[in-house]
Amino acid sequence: MASFIASVIRTTGSDRGLRCVSYRIGDTIADVTLLAYRYALDPTPAQERDLRSHAGAARVAFNWGLARVKANLSQREAERSYGIPDADLTPSVSWSLAGLRKAWNAEKEQVAPWWRECSKEAFNTGLDALARALDAWSKSRRGKRKGRPVGFPRFRSKRKAKMSVRFTTGAIRHDGTHAVLPRLGRIKLHERADLSDARIVSATVRYERGRWFVAFTIERDVSRPAAPAGTVVGVDLGIKTLATLSTGEVIENPRHLSGALRKVRRLSRTVSRRQGPDRRTGQQASNRWKRADAARNKALGRVADQRRDALHKTTTALTRRFATVVVEDLHVAGMLANHKLARHVADASFGEFR
Predict the structure, then answer these.
(1) What is the pLDDT of residues 115-156, one digit of tens each?
(2) How many other CB atoms are found less than 10 A from the CB of residue 350?
(3) Listed residue (247, 260, 252) closest to 326, CA to CA
(4) Which of 168, 199, 249, 351 is deepest in the core (most CB within 10 A)?
(5) pLDDT tens digit string along 233-268?
């Protein structure tokens, strides 16, 4: 940063390396932070096949690593049942990302002889997700993780798994109208964007509600007006009114889901009348069921987008007006146990607001 910056006023971080360092310059706060910009993609049929192939490669790597870890744990548990001392048990395998990646590179020719058709980042995406899931399970079992208990990871189904792949190395660029990704080449964006003044750190491609999206994680200097020093506000969250401020102002609850519930229910009834998938009998979903399910997911996705947009605008307005915001800590999980209010509590999204 330049020499005239007075002081660092806030630094945050996370396990994914996301960081935000804030500086105050007079009445302006400058943030050196990682931001994410998401755009819809318009891939060609060939590019869409490649995207699905990369997402499938991530799923294959995840399932391979999980099977390897489960087999090792089961072997050690069986040996313990025969009274074998811990020192003589089969050596445990490493489930860190580095250990999984080393084992994958040694066996990928046998497991996936087609691995050259996909970027190495596709396999790294699956192994990284597995390493995080196993780490969360291990810490939860030992009581070193906050929140609800985390179960052991499950195998990812080809039919149900979310299609996603993350690129952190290689040719990752953005020219305003196209996204350039390793092995996938130039993919057209649905809308024009400008990230010319930012350094792209990574790109995540994800399939949601019938179309592909790309999210660029960039590093950029962001300047914004500083809130007046010493200003404090208390926020009381609720259902009838989303937020009541200590200043007397009231923020109405948009109730996005309630407004779209009639349409969602109608689409859900349509889905229920179609021939859906059944894992017990092996029945495949009909094309009419797939179209109806896609229409219902699109309607629910629109509600989620509206809720996210409204919360973002509301909380941004509060942080620009007040230097200190005090929000009550609600036990949302307990509130969801009330079946008469659960839908309204979930629609308000208190956790996201906080």
Answers:
(1) 999 999 999 999 999 999 999 999 999 999 888 899 999 999
(2) 21
(3) 247
(4) 168
(5) 999 998 889 999 999 999 999 999 998 999 999 999
For the record, the structure tokens of 185 come out as 């080449």
Question: What's the angle, vertex CA 316, arms to CA 312 and CA 317, rounded to 5?
Answer: 120
Rounded to the nearest angstrom, the gap between the alpha carbon of residue 91 and the centroid of all alpha carbons in its chain is 34
Helix or strand or coil: residue 45?
helix
Give the pair of three-digit tokens for residue 330: 């609600």
* Residue 308, token pair as written in the block: 């996210």
> Whole-structure pTM over 0.85, yes or no?
no
DSSP assignment string, 280-325: TTTBPPPHHHHHHHHHHHHHHHHHHHHHHHHHHHHHHHHHHH-SEE
Residue by residue, DSSP assigns 117-134 as GS-HHHHHHHHHHHHHHH
Structure tokens at 242: 């989303």
Question: What amino acid is encoded at 186 in this protein?
Answer: R
| CA-closest candidate to residue 122, choices 63, 174, 51 | 51
Q: Which tens digits make up the pLDDT trace of 290-333?
A: 999 999 999 998 999 999 999 999 999 998 899 899 998 888 88
- Whether 213 contacts 303, CB under 8 Å: no
| Dist CA 234 CA 246 (whole Å) | 5
* Residue matched to tokens 């996210």: 308
Supply the DSSP symbol for 41. Answer: B
DSSP 3-state helix, strand, coil percentages of the chain (rounded to 5)? 40, 25, 35
d(CA 218, CA 206): 17
